[in-house]
Amino acid sequence: MFRVGNGIDFHKLIDEPFRPLMLAGVEVKSPFAFLGHSDADIILHSVADAILGALSLGDIGQHFPDTDPKLKNMDSKKIIEKCLELMKDKNFDLVNVDCTYVGDHPKINPIRDELITSLAKLLEIPKDCASIKATTSEGMGALGRSEGVMVMSTVLLESKAKKQ
C-alpha cells in the first residue's frame, strides 16, 4: 500500500542579519531570514506536513504549536525526527520527496546540491530520492515582491507490511 502526502508552508522574509536562514537543515549565508516561532526552516516544515498528511496525523501546528514557549527557536530537524518516528510507528517507509521552492531569496540553484544532500540524510533516503526545485512568481503578489517564500512538498510512503 502506498500513501501520498502534500505539504505547503509560507514564511515571511525579514531583513535580520543575526537570525540564521535555515533551509533543509542547512544554515544558508544570507542577510535575510525567515520569520517564525521555530528556526523557520520552510523546506523541513513543508516536508513534515506532507509526511503527517500521508499518515492522516494532522499538521505540524497540532504537534508543535507556535503558542508553546518551549518550542521557541527550536531546530526544525526535531520536527522531522518526530514525523519519521510517527511514520515508523505506523509501519511506513519514505520512498521519495519532491519540494518546490517559490521565492526570489535566497537563490536555490547555487546551493541545491547541499540542500538535497542534507534533506536526504535527514529523511534517511538515498539522495536520488530527494528533489528540490525552485521557481519565482514572476513578480506577482507578496512572493513576487520578495515579502516571503512558499514551499510545496509531496512525499510517497510505502507500507512495510506490503514489502514482506
Any overview of this molecule?
The protein is α+β, with helices and mostly antiparallel strands and 164 residues long. Helix content is 31%, strand content 32%. The chain is built from 6 helices and 7 strands; from the N terminus they run E-E-E-E-H-H-H-E-H-E-H-E-H. The strands form 2 sheets. Strands 4-1-7-5-6 form a 5-stranded mixed β-sheet. The protein is globular, with a radius of gyration of 15 Å.
Secondary-structure element series: EEEEHHHEHEHEH
Helix content: 25-40%
Structure classification: alpha+beta
Strand order of the largest sheet: 4-1-7-5-6
Radius of gyration: 15 Å
Number of helices: 6
Low-confidence segments, ≥5 residues, pLDDT <50?
Answer: none
Question: What would the keywords be for this entry?
Answer:
164 residues; alpha+beta; five-stranded mixed beta sheet; two-stranded antiparallel ribbon; 6 helices; 7 strands
